[in-house]
């Protein structure tokens, strides 16, 4: 699947080693302390899974990375840039390199699939050197998720699984260096979940991106993870490969992995 | 003195408890909520002006929203205006006949429609249709993280969603009012034509003779503010929608209520100012 | 893309039509106030602005030709009203045209009437000042006239009652005169009548003066009669006047005493009547008189029961009875 264009694309961007680095991230909403000194390092091309109960601060953490939520303290470095100091312009530029798959797909209801996929490009056409015709890029992204035929459908005409795949195509369309997945399999049936996981796996191979995956789906973690961080009460509780953690005897860790 | 560190509001709140006046406490907390809401809305409006004046501008989305809010509301506004004009005339006829002043109908109906009824009815219809629509649309976009998705895609959702919508309602409402007024006058003329045998030409001639710039200009300026209020409240309620599908319903509902209330407030202020202005 | 284009087309139509309608409405309103067409400024001086407001219409021979632009107080009795009138009307309005303040119907707003002059003067130009008919003087005069008139009417009524009682008691005329109270009353009444007559004649003289003034300046007469308010007032006063005069005449025939004075008045009335616009009014006056005679009879009937005359009628009755008794005896 890997074609020349993509090799060239990769070669253009220097390898920085560490893609995302989070140090001592803290965030509270009122009296609710969500994040209490969270740390994370994501290496290029690796898949990091963050696991945790609902309300353990996973979603807040991932939103801190893309600047949707401003942390109270701590640093977030993406591709060597600390995002706290960035203005809107620079942040938008940085966001070019970040793909984000939202929990509920978050497709724009009022737009067709094509318009949904074109949307991330509208601000960056000049910088990316994309000419007016965005058709090849849209088609390419859709083909990668196997939905080229759905290009002119509205999101309301798609099933949950298809939506998730379109959303994935949308987050991939700018060929980001890192993709953040917020519960990629939530709300899907096991079979569709499996398809999505396989798709994520394949895409990672095609685009060679690093992935940060938030999930509480153990299957997902097993298939895709290089490493797993267990998030409990807003702080790293345990860290290791799937094999290591699944054998852990710690009750809190074991609670996640027992079927 | 544990109260020293607390802010004055909390102090009063606690003081309320100390004197054991439940009523005072709930009153105060409600009042506090009201002030917070007013402050939030003001900040939202300020942000709108800040973002609206700064490039990049979302012209295509603005046009799309103008179409959605202008053309799509035309039918409803037209029908309502027509019926209001019809009913106003039918209801006034008996009284005017008693006074032998039925020939004053075009003056009376014309002035009341252009000055007050046209803008207010159109604005209320739009508050029902547009403000709730925006509230629900932005609310569901907020709930399903579409607004976050835009942010992440490098598009400023405030510019793309809020600025375009508020601008669209601000620009479209005066035009809708013109259509509403015209159809209301047409409805009124129709009644006069059928019941009183007044020709359309005479009717409209009398109306335009009765009208002054002091009727048309404040009404038009007022319409812009009405449009702004509708867009602002709809966007505000939708943009800060609470999570969950129930939040969307609440957003749509409160958007209509708040927009309608603010419309009347703005109307009152507008009439007051226009009155002072034309007294001079 | 095609869909977007269609939407934009529809939106464009919507916006253009809406804006055009608004502009048309503004134009129609502005046109009425002469905001757009070419205009020239003129002015006129009045003693009293009579509540005229900025934007009030200016009419020339009944056609709206302009609006009031500015009202300037020069001193306590001189008010200059600036108007703008359509330029195309310039060639119809001459310098001797007269401006007056009137009102548009019974409840309408005030307006300025410009009435054409003789037609020999040159056309007006921008900044010209028109002659004005000072409504205040006329109105003051008319007010005095109407007051006099009311007085005359009251006296006439008194007189009518008495004279009627006299004519009713034909045979007992001498007896009536012997009745001291009644005689005194009659005397008083005749004095009143004389007073009324002299008042009427002075009033008629005033009227004549007015009419002469009217005659002297044909244009002013036109103004007076065309101007709805003063015209109506004038006519009603004349009507009152005539009414009283007729009643006086009828009474005079009974009394044969004040005819001469009245005839002078009648001459004036005839003079007035030659003015065509008054003829119709005279006709209605005649009708009023006829009705007045009817009322008159009713009044007489009532008089019989009046406390003043009741005694007299009873006396009559009693004496009648006495005579009857004597005859029987």
Question: What would you say this structure looks like, in words?
Answer:
By secondary structure, chain A is an alpha/beta fold. Chain A has a 6-stranded mixed β-sheet with strand order 6-7-8-3-9-10, with helices on both faces. Chain A has a single domain (about 5-255), classed as P-loop containing nucleotide triphosphate hydrolases (Rossmann fold), CATH 3.40.50.300. Chain A has helices at about 5-10, 60-65, 90-95, 115-120, 125-130, 135-145, 160-170, 190-205, 220-225, 240-245, 250-255; strands at about 20-30, 30-45, 45-50, 75-80, 80, 100, 180, 210-215, 225-230, 235-240. Chain B has about 280 residues and is mainly α. Chain B folds into 2 domains: about 1-55, no CATH class; about 55-280, no CATH class. Chain B is about 85% helix and about 0% strand. Chain B has helices at about 10-20, 20-50, 60-100, 105-145, 145-150, 155-195, 200-210, 215-240, 245-280. In chain B, helix 4 packs across helix 7, helix 4 (about 105-145) runs parallel beside helix 8 and helix 4 (about 105-145) packs antiparallel against helix 9 (about 245-280). The longest helix of chain B is centred in the first third of the chain and has 40 residues, at about 60-100. The N and C termini of chain B lie far apart (about 55 Å). The mean pLDDT of chain B is about 85. Chain C is an alpha/beta fold and about 325 residues long. Chain C has 2 domains: about 40-130; about 135-325, no CATH class. Helix content of chain C is about 65%, strand content about 15%. Chain C has helices at about 1-30, 135-170, 175-180, 180-215, 220-225, 230-255, 260-275, 275-305, 305-329; strands spanning about 40-45, 55-60, 65-75, 80-85, 100-105, 110-115, 130. In chain C, helix 4 crosses helix 5 (about 220-225) and helix 6 (about 230-255) crosses helix 8 (about 275-305). Chain C is elongated, with a radius of gyration of 31 Å. The model of chain C is unreliable at about 170-175, about 215-230 and about 255-280 (pLDDT under 50). The chains are: A alpha/beta (about 260), B mainly alpha (about 280), C alpha/beta (about 325). The interface of B and C includes residues 63, 64, 71, 175 and 182 of B.
């Amino acid at each position: 699947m890997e074609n020349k264009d993509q090799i060239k694309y990769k070669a253009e961007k220097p390898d920085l080693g560490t893609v995302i680095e989070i140090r001592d991230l803290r965030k509270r909403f009122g009296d609710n302390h969500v994040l209490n000194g969270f740390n994370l390092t994501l290496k290029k091309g690796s898949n990091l899974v963050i696991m945790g109960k609902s309300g353990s601060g996973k979603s807040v953490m991932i939103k801190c990375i893309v600047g949707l939520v401003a942390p109270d303290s701590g640093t977030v470095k993406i591709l060597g840039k600390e995002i706290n100091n960035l203005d809107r312009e620079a942040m938008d530029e940085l966001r070019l390199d970040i793909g984000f798959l939202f929990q509920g797909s978050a497709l724009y209801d009022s737009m067709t699939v094509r318009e949904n996929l074109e949307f991330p490009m509208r601000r960056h056409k000049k910088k990316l050197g994309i000419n007016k015709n965005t058709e090849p890029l849209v088609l390419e992204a859709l083909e990668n998720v196997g939905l080229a035929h759905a290009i002119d459908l509205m999101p309301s005409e798609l099933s949950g699984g298809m939506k998730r795949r379109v959303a994935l195509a949308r987050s991939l369309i700018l060929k980001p260096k890192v993709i953040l997945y917020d519960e990629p399999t939530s709300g899907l049936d096991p079979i569709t979940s499996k398809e999505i996981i396989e798709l994520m796996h394949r895409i990672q191979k095609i685009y060679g991106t690093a992935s940060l995956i938030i999930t509480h789906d153990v299957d997902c973690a097993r298939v895709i993870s290089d490493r797993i961080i267990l998030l409990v009460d807003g702080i790293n509780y345990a860290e290791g490969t799937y094999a290591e953690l699944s054998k852990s005897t710690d009750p809190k860790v074991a609670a996640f992995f027992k079927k | 003195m544990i109260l020293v560190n607390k802010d004055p509001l909390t102090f009063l709140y606690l003081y309320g408890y100390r004197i054991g006046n439940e009523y005072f406490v709930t009153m105060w907390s409600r009042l506090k909520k009201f002030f917070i809401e007013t402050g939030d809305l003001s900040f939202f409006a300020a942000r709108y002006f800040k973002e609206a004046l700064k490039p990049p501008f979302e012209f295509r989305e603005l046009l799309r929203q103008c179409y959605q809010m202008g053309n799509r509301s035309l039918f409803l506004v037209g029908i309502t205006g027509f019926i209001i004009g019809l009913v106003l005339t039918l209801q006034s006829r008996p009284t005017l006949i008693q006074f032998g002043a039925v020939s004053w109908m075009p003056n009376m109906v014309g002035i009341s429609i252009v000055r007050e009824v046209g803008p207010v009815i159109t604005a209320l219809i739009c508050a029902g249709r547009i403000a709730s629509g925006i509230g629900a649309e932005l609310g569901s976009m907020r709930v399903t993280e579409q607004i976050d998705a835009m942010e992440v895609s490098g598009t400023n959702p405030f510019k793309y969603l809020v600025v375009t919508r508020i601008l669209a309602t601000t620009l479209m409402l005066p035009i809708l009012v013109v259509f509403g007024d015209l159809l209301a006058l047409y409805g009124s003329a129709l009644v006069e034509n059928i019941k009183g045998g007044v020709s359309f030409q005479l009717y409209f001639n009398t109306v335009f003779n009765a009208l002054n710039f002091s009727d048309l200009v404040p009404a038009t300026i007022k319409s812009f503010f009405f449009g702004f209020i509708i867009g602002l409240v709809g966007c505000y309620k939708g943009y800060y929608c609470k999570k969950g599908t129930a939040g969307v319903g609440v957003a749509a509902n409160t958007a209509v209520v708040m927009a309608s209330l603010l419309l009347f407030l703005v109307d009152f202020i507008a009439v007051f100012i226009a009155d002072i202005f034309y007294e001079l | 893309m095609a869909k977007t284009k269609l939407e934009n087309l529809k939106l464009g139509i919507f916006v253009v039509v809406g804006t055009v309608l608004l502009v048309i409405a503004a134009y129609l309103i502005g046109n009425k106030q002469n905001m757009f067409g070419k205009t020239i400024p003129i002015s006129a001086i009045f003693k009293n602005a009579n509540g005229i407001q900025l934007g009030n219409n200016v009419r020339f021979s009944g056609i709206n030709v302009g609006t009031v632009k500015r009202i300037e107080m020069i001193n306590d009795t001189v008010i200059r009203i600036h108007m703008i009138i359509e330029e195309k009307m310039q060639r119809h309005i001459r310098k001797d045209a007269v401006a007056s303040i009137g009102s548009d119907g019974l409840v309408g707003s005030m307006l300025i009437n410009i009435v054409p002059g003789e037609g020999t003067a040159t056309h007006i130009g921008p900044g010209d000042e028109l002659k004005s008919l000072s409504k205040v003087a006329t109105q003051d005069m008319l007010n005095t006239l109407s007051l006099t008139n009311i007085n005359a009417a009251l006296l006439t009524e008194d007189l009518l009652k008495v004279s009627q009682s006299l004519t009713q008691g034909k045979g007992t005329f001498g007896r009536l005169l012997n009745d001291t109270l009644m005689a005194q009353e009659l005397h008083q009444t005749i004095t009143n009548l004389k007073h009324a007559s002299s008042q009427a004649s002075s009033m008629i003289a005033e009227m004549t003066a007015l009419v002469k003034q009217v005659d002297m300046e044909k244009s002013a007469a036109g103004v007076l009669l065309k101007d709805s308010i003063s015209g109506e007032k004038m006519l009603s006063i004349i009507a009152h006047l005539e009414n009283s005069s007729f009643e006086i005449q009828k009474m005079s025939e009974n009394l044969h005493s004040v005819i001469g004075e009245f005839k002078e008045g009648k001459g004036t009335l005839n003079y007035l009547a030659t003015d065509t616009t008054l003829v119709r009014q005279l006709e209605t006056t005649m009708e009023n008189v006829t009705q007045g005679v009817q009322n008159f009879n009713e009044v007489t009937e009532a008089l019989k029961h009046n406390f003043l005359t009741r005694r007299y009628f009873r006396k009559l009755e009693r004496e009648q009875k006495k005579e009857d008794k004597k005859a029987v005896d």
